[in-house]
Amino acid sequence: MRRRLYYCDQHAIPLPPGHKFPAQKYALLRGLLAADGLYDPTPAPPAEAGTIELAHDGGYVRAFLAGTLDPRIMRRIGFPWSAQLVRRTLASVGGTLAAAADALAGGFGGNLAGGTHHAFRGEGAGFCIFNDLAVAILWLRRERGVGRAAVIDLDVHQGDGTASIFQNDRDVLTLSLHGENNFPFRKQASSIDIGLRDGAGDEEYLARLREALPLVLRFRPEVVLYQAGVDALAGDRLGRLNLSPGGLLERDRMVFEITKSHGIPLIVTLGGGYADPIARTAEAHANTFRAAAAVFDRHATFRSSVTSY
User: Fold this and answer.
1) pTM for the whole thing?
2) How far is CA 200 from CA 105, 161, 205, in A?
3) For residue 243, what are the contacts with CB-CB under 8 A and spacing of at least 6?
4) pLDDT digits (tens, 9 = 90+) for 142-189
5) In this structure, are residues 188 and 160 in contact, taking their beta carbons and an 8 Å threshold?
6) What does the alpha-carbon distance between residue 106 and residue 263 come to, in Å, rounded to a whole number?
7) 172-179 β-sheet, strand order
8) Is the pLDDT of residue 230 over 60?
9) Cα 265 to the center of its chain, rounded Å
């Protein structure tokens, strides 16, 4: 039986021409993975407002759902409000919750959205409305009795919202490996922050990650959430790092191998990616999930396209 991956790209959101959010990458990614036949793409169920409020202020949640959020907060988020945006946002969080349940049951779960790590408890920013990583951790704590969780955030932008939400929570470790001079320009304090210089490439990036992963294991998490943004790819419009497709692939393999070998359930969320053309980003995301299949399902045939772009 193939593992499920949850998607929410059926909820198209209206955006003005030239908007920076790469909405088209989600359907492109789902198409690539469907063609591989390694997974069962499954529509993400919507998260309930009460569950989202485990990580977010209730007034903020209700105002967003009703379309009455302060316009200044919507500008920081970067989307115009719409009913379609509400549906997509609830499904994005719901996909991570469903992936979390799958991970506890079978060691791995994946969401073809999510990783919205710039959302704070009472407001969003940077295309992030609700922090699905934080919601999932607190849901796992309440519903499944998970005590200790770790977030491995390898998006090129620091996971500031996640760091803020868990800054006083001793049962959550947050690791962020990111571009030091990139957004957000006011960083928060993760449990482990590793800031990289502009232009850092494969060797430097992988060396720093190799140093950090044992610290995650030392924390003894019962579950790991992986924010697998691919905006560290060389040429990404918002990235400023210089990883090759092969470097990104090795990054993913390192995370997958260490969690699998230690029996730690892993939840993978998408995160950022803004290459031009956007097909480069979709392919990089696809390679993340192809690598996961190769590690977690050893019979799977891994067909990487790292030399094609």
Assistant:
1) 0.95
2) 37, 24, 7
3) 201, 202, 205, 232, 233, 234, 251
4) 999 999 999 999 999 999 999 999 999 999 999 999 999 999 999 999
5) yes
6) 10
7) 39-43, 3-7, 108-111, 266-269, 223-227, 149-153, 172-179, 192-196
8) yes
9) 16
CA distances in angstroms from 184 to 121, 132, 160, 172, 195, listed in the order given: 16, 18, 7, 21, 12
Q: First-to-last CA distance in the chain?
A: 32
- Residue 168, Cβ density class (10 Å: 0-12 exposed, 13-18 middle, ≥19 buried): exposed
Question: What integer pLDDT is reported at residue 304 of this predicted model?
Answer: 45
- Of the candidates 11, 56, 117, 118, the residue annotated as catalytic is 118
What percent of the chain shows pLDDT beyond 70?
96
Return the structure tokens found at 121: 């408890």
d(CA 250, CA 65): 39
Give, as one character, the DSSP assignment of residue 115.
-
Q: Is residue 69 over pLDDT 50?
A: yes
Q: Pull the structure tokens for residue 39.
A: 């997974």
Q: Where do the domains of the chain lie?
A: 3-12+22-296
When the candidates are 3.40.800.20, 3.30.1490.20, 2.40.50.140, 3.10.530.10, the CATH number that belongs to 3-12+22-296 is 3.40.800.20
Instruction: Specify whether 299 is catalytic.
Output: no
